[in-house]
Design brief:
Among the domains are: 60 residues, no CATH class; 68 residues. Helix content is 76%, strand content 0%. It contains five helices and no strands. The protein is elongated. The termini are far apart. The C terminus is likely disordered.
């Protein structure tokens, strides 16, 4: 059925265009007679569509007439008015744009100035930090020297105390060695032998003896 309708549409379209080119009247009857019969119900819409297509083609191919002088003058006046209005708007926008550029330049200059101030503050802070670091290193060196000196003094103090304790104990050991044994007499002389001198004479008064504990303590 679709193929039959397409074939009928083609026949009707060809017949309408043929009548149009020959300048003949286009009706449903003449088209029906040209294609060899058919139903007016099917042919009528196809003839109407073909005639509308021809009218549209003729409208598009028709040449435009020359523009009247009055219209040319009016169009020129409208063009001048539109140009002046557009130029005024463009001028206003250019001025606003220039003002915005000046504002941005001022902000940029201010930002650069602030950057310079910040850079100066940064350099000053770095200089202070370097100075503090140097002072800290010097303080650490002084602290190490002081700690070494304290360690030396502590060592000398310990040696001194050890020497005092040692010198204090020696006289006690000597006195203990010098005491006679209670089971034996202090001196014994064998019969017929000469008396031997006493190896451990009685303790005399200490006259500045360096072994005396009190003297050592005083030292």
């Amino acid at each position: 059925m679709a193929q039959k309708n397409a074939s009928l549409e083609k026949l009707v379209n060809n017949a309408v265009r043929s009548f149009y080119s020959q300048g003949k009247t286009i009706t449903n009857e003449t088209v029906r007679a040209a294609i060899g019969g058919g139903s007016f119900r099917d042919i009528g819409p196809l003839v109407k569509t073909a005639k509308a297509e021809l009218a549209a083609e003729e409208q598009t191919t028709r040449a435009a007439p020359e523009m009247p002088d009055d219209f040319n003058d009016a169009a020129a006046a409208m063009w001048r008015t539109a140009w002046e209005l557009a130029d005024e708007i463009a001028t206003s926008e250019r001025r606003a744009h220039a003002a915005e550029i000046d504002k941005l330049k001022a902000e940029a200059d201010e930002a650069l100035s602030n950057c310079g101030i910040v850079e100066d503050e940064r350099d000053e802070a770095e200089a202070r930090a370097q100075s503090f670091s140097k002072e800290l290193e010097e303080s650490r060196g002084s602290l190490r020297d002081a700690q070494l000196e304290i360690a030396k003094l502590n060592g000398r103090l310990i040696e001194r105390e050890t020497d005092i304790v040692s010198r204090t104990k020696q006289p006690k050991l000597r006195r203990q060695t010098a005491k006679p044994s209670p089971e034996k007499p202090a001196t014994s002389v064998a019969a017929g032998e000469e008396a031997q001198p006493d190896m451990f004479p009685p303790k005399q008064a200490n006259n500045g003896n360096s072994d005396d504990p009190d003297t050592i303590a005083a030292e």
